[in-house]
Amino acid sequence: MSLCTLSPAVAAARAAGRPVVALESTIITHGMPWPQNLDIARRIEATVRENGAEPATIAVIDGTLHVGLEDGQIEALAQARGVAKLSRADLAVCMAEGRTGATTVAATMIAAAMAGIAVFATGGIGGVHRGAETSFDVSADLQELSQTPVTVVAAGAKAILDLPKTLEVLETLGVPVIAYGQDMLPAFWSRSAGLRAPLRMDEAAAIARAHAMRGRLGLPGGQLVANPIPEAAEIPRAEMTPVISRAMQDAIDHGIHGKDLTPYLLQRIFELTEGRSLDANVALVLNNAALGARIATELVALPA
Ligand code: PSU
Ligand code: MN
């Protein structure tokens, strides 16, 4: 029996060689509050379709690894409580125990690769947390990018992370970090992290060719495409800095760490910005879904 279950729409797209874009479920269950998360999950899928590709939202439901969810499954996940947050370490345990879990960037990449899906769009990836020199908190997303051949479109890494250290680790791991259409590394809510990105590409087709070239070279791992948030939706870095500091201090005061840290910070920043952080998050994730669909479309059009 196959280890992952494709939805009929995703199976049909794969069989016909049409472009498919993988989507994660942790942003639904742990990254955004109910009920906005449901509406946003649907809009992300619609954006992928409008840009010519089939969306495949990925999650483990009652032990089954689903690649492509029906609307009712997304609705149930969006309001479920106590859903596990799955990365490489806990994916197999969740499936073996017949439980339900949302996939992070790392686990979504694993499932996408199994299903033959080369492109994945999300909001932001995990990275090296601030204070990692003492906490050792480095997201498994970085290691996954070095070993699983999926191109991940994100809006850079969030400013709650230590961005210079995140770039250093990605370089060590051999992960290309490609800023889309600009020289500077985007920083999620803001268009620039104040750091130059290692690489820059301006065309979806070129990103698709680079993905294919890695495969031909036999290099394992994927690419990180850092797509800047649309200008109209950006929250300037200067405005986010004190909010992030406050949220981080609150996390320390409440003893939050490990898997709970990223969801806690996102929720706290949502409260502190009175919802503005979520509006920006929606704009950037839709922007990434559109670019992901264009890259996936270029990829299936490449000569074999
Ligand atoms: N970035 C966001 N929203 C999120 C996440 C990242 O803007 O919800 C999630 C992703 O699923 C990512 C995970 O893979 O957080 C990283 O968690 P950690 O830092 O615990 O590895
Ligand atoms: Mn972590």
From TrEMBL:
Catalysed reactions, semicolon-separated? D-ribose 5-phosphate + uracil = psi-UMP + H2O
**Where would one find coiled-coil regions in this protein?**
none
Q: Which EC number(s) does UniProt give?
A: 4.2.1.70
What are the GO cellular component annotations?
cytoplasm
Sites binding Mn(2+) sit at: 137
Q: Does the keyword Hydrolase apply?
A: yes
Q: Which PANTHER family match?
A: CARBOHYDRATE KINASE PFKB DOMAIN-CONTAINING PROTEIN, ZGC:136858
Subunit? Homotrimer.
- What is this protein identified as? Pseudouridine-5'-phosphate glycosidase
Instruction: Please give the organism.
Output: Roseivivax sediminis
